[in-house]
């Protein structure tokens, strides 16, 4: 997916000084989730061209016993009579693939090409007092971060670098914290609901479902595949993202998913995300605010901290260095909720690597702070008239908008999430 890259980057006017950057993007391409695989897949999927490391090590390492860089190698035993559901082969489902690792590396290189090479904003070497990286409790985000950090700070390859992660029960980035009111709200209009705005496209796609079920072997009563197009979307898009053929029936190889069928699945998937996060009306903003408001409040606090680090009279009088660049590796559900809260003009299903960037500037003219928000490397357009095109908006306006939704330090979330 498009992201900040030097060739297309819209440089700010020279009368502004970049003070703080926060990046959030979806992980890069992966194998499908196991639940999204067909009961029997007609061909295997091998991941022998990469290693996913799983190990612990003493810290600090000086004078300590050292660990081996161990990694998982998936195998099946000839003595085990059970067949795995879905794909045979040597992959985890999910895992970031070799192509996804390479895309992650390129993503980091592109960001560094702008914020270091072009703007001189990032340091030459990784400095934890200036730069931080954050992931979710889903291991695939750490797999991505390992490549991003390596390409941004090449001297850190094979070195220890911390990835921030919150406890799984309260993780705001994924998000994984409980918000019962948001969940109930979503259940009234979203996936699995009887809301006509949701069920109409599923009924209209009954013929497509019948074709797909016959080819895949998925039961028409399998609710996971039939309450939305999420499962078929993930299964088919993962294949095409890795130049694999569209699937055929395991027993009748002449019966195959056509490109036209796949395109219809993708179109319906885009419709679903647009409906769930924008087109279902005010309910979408309420849902996203409750379920993602804590991360938004953290973003706002980061902006406040970045402004407070600089004396109001002179940008040369800094009270502390402070973190100037934060990088979050997240999921499609993370990006979707954030775009919903920003009331993006055109909602889409965020693809692999989809990125939102918040850039905080100080004007050299009036010494005030301004903010830009980039989506896919270009200025984000909000349908909210107060936000509009998020290009050098007075930062107080965006902060007031966020505070109005979630409260300072997310102090409204408790009441928003209670039933």
Automatic annotation (TrEMBL):
Record-linked SUPFAM superfamilies: Phosphoglycerate mutase-like
Superkingdom to which the source organism belongs: Eukaryota
InterPro entries linked to this entry: His_Pase_clade-2, His_PPase_superfam, Histidine_acid_phosphatase
GO molecular function, one term: phosphatase activity
Pfam families recorded: His_Phos_2
Family: Belongs to the histidine acid phosphatase family.
PANTHER family named in the record: ACID PHOSPHATASE, PUTATIVE (AFU_ORTHOLOGUE AFUA_3G14570)-RELATED (PTHR11567:SF195), ACID PHOSPHATASE-RELATED (PTHR11567)
Protein name: Histidine acid phosphatase
Gene source species: Ramalina farinacea
């Amino acid at each position: 997916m498009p992201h900040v890259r030097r060739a297309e980057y819209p440089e700010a006017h020279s009368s502004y000084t970049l003070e703080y950057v926060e990046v959030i993007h979806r992980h890069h391409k992966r194998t499908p989730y196991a639940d999204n695989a067909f009961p029997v897949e007609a061909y295997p999927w091998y991941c022998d061209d990469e290693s996913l490391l799983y190990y612990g090590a003493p810290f600090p390492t000086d004078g300590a016993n050292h660990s081996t860089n161990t990694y998982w190698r998936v195998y099946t035993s000839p003595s085990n009579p059970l067949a795995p559901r879905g794909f045979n082969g040597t992959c985890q489902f999910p895992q970031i693939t070799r192509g996804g690792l390479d895309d992650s590396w390129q993503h980091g290189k592109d960001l560094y090409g702008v914020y270091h090479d072009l703007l001189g904003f990032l340091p030459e070497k990784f400095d934890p007092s200036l730069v931080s990286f954050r992931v979710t409790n889903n291991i695939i985000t750490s797999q991505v971060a390992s490549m991003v950090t390596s390409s941004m700070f090449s001297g850190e390859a094979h070195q220890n670098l911390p990835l921030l992660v919150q406890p799984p029960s309260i993780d705001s980035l994924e998000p994984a914290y409980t918000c019962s009111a948001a969940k109930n709200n979503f259940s009234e209009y979203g996936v699995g609901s009887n809301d006509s705005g949701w069920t109409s496209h599923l009924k209209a796609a009954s013929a497509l479902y019948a074709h797909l079920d016959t080819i895949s072997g998925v039961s028409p009563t399998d609710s996971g595949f039939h309450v939305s197009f999420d499962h078929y979307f993930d299964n088919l898009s993962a294949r095409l993202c890795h130049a694999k053929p569209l699937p055929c029936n395991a027993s009748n190889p002449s019966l195959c998913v056509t490109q036209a069928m796949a395109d219809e699945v993708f179109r319906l998937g885009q419709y679903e995300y647009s409906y769930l996060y924008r087109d279902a009306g005010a309910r979408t903003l309420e849902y996203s605010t409750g379920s993602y408001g804590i991360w938004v409040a953290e973003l706002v606090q980061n902006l406040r901290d970045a402004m407070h680090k600089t004396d109001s009279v002179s940008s040369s009088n800094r009270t502390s260095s402070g973190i100037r660049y934060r990088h979050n590796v997240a999921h499609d559900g993370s990006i979707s909720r954030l775009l919903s809260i920003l009331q993006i003009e055109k909602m889409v299903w965020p693809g692999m690597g989809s990125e939102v960037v918040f850039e905080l500037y100080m004007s050299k003219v009036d010494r005030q702070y301004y903010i830009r928000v980039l989506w896919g490397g270009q200025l984000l357009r909000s349908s909210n008239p107060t936000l509009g095109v998020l290009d050098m908006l007075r930062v107080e306006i965006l902060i007031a908008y966020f505070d109005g939704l979630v409260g300072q330090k997310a102090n409204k979330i408790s009441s928003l999430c209670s039933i």
